[in-house]
Structures are given as structure tokens and as C-alpha cells.
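Example 3.2
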Amino acid sequence: MKLNEFSFIDSHVHFYDMKHPTLHYGHWQPHEDLPLRELGNRNYLATDFLKEAEPLGMRKVIHVQAAIGSKDPVEETKWLEDVFIQTGIPHAIVGHVDLRAPNAREVIEKHLKYQHFKGIRDFSYGDYLVNKDFRKGFALHEEYNLISSIAVRWEEMEKLVDLANSYPNIIIILDHAGNPEFRTEEYFNNWKSGMTKISKMDNIICKISGLGMGDHNWTLESITPYVETCFELFGISRTIFATNWPVDGLYSDYSKVINAYREITKFLSLTEQEAFFCKNSENIYDI
């Protein structure tokens, strides 16, 4: 990163077409809670994202599963490959695989027919991190050289530590900085305790993103302790930047997020800023 030159990789975005004939967006249906269901009132396409992100220095983008409840999750990857041909983004795709399912391997191999497929997110259910079938499917990440994307809250972090310890050769991306839901001192301490345990696992990368989901009226001052704690625990080399767009767009505009992180990271060297905003994601996802 050159002086006065700023660019970033957005490592967690969602594109969706509510009228797509085979894709279903379960989180954004009319019966879902506010404000998430408001996302279903419109489409959010790659062209919409480019209008918001390119003027601010977006270099590359990683798409994370948006379609939930589709009959065939590979349809989203296929659609996104077509989007890439048309727009030049996304540069990597993290798609859905039901890792408990007997056909998990077959689904992975279908995803891998598309060149930008790089990882798996399984929004599973129940106590899935210790489920035997889930772990059997999870092991396939290593065989196919795929990145795992997992979202947990502090109450589940010890189970994530055990998962990471059981599969030390699989890179796990902790989504949304461990999903801190509340902004109380007690919650912060519980969250930090869990994050401290997670940070000791070298194969877990902290994706700093989505902080608006637990802090709808966030300010620079309210999110800074969480960002700085992630840097403190994981180091710059095991953190990556993302916006969780357009979900976090329910609570702010894109430029506010980018400018906030630029301000928070001013204390980092230019090399460290380049690592956090760009290089770490490029290396992890090979993009």
C-alpha cells in the first residue's frame, strides 16, 4: 500500500436475486424478523455492490452463501460464476454444503466444477460442532483444500476450539468476529474470554465484520474495542476485513464502514494495513 493510496478486499458480501427461479433466500422472507426481512424487498446484485464499493477502493470481493433453503446449493455457485463473467466479481465463492448429509462429497465436487469456489459455509442446526456426521463431512475440507467459514457466539467457542484442534490442517474463518451481540461490560468480558481461547488455535482466522448486527446504532467508539481486541488476540496476520454487505447496510452506509475501519487502523503500519485489508485474504483464498 502506497502512501495516500487505499484499497481493500471485501471478504464477506452477499448478492441475491429474489426472482431467481431456483434460489431461495430463507433469511429474507416476509415471516422473518425485522430488520433482516427488509433485505427481501429488493435485489442486491454485483452491479449494485460495484457502485458502492469501487469508488472507495475495493480491489477484490469474496461472496459468502446468501441462498438458504435452495433445493440445490450448487445453483448459487453456478449463478455466481455467470455473474463473474458479466461483472468481474466475485473473485472467490464460499458456498453451502450440508456437511451432515451422506452426499456431502458429491455436492462439494459439483461446486468444484466452478473455478471460483474456494470454501464452505454450513449453517447447520443444534449442537452441530460436536456432531459426528458433521465432523465426518467437515474433514472433507482438508481433502479438497477448502476454507471453512463458521459463525459462533461466545457460548460455543470452546466447541470451535475442539473442532479446530481435531482438524489442525483445515483453515477456519471465524465469521463476524465471533458475533458479539450486546454492548455491555459483562458481555464484552465473556466474548473476550471465548475469543482468547479461539485465538490460541493457529488455524483459526478472525474475520472482522458484521459488528452492526449486534449494535444497530454503532459508532466508531462502540466498535473500536472489539476491533482492537481482535488485533490484540489474533495479531494482524490472522485477521481479515469484511463488511457483511448488504446485511450491515441495514444499519449504516458503505462509506461509513470503510471510513470507520480506516480510522481504527491508523495506528498500524502501512504493511500491516495492507495485510489486514488485502494480503491476508488474497493468501487465504488464493485470489
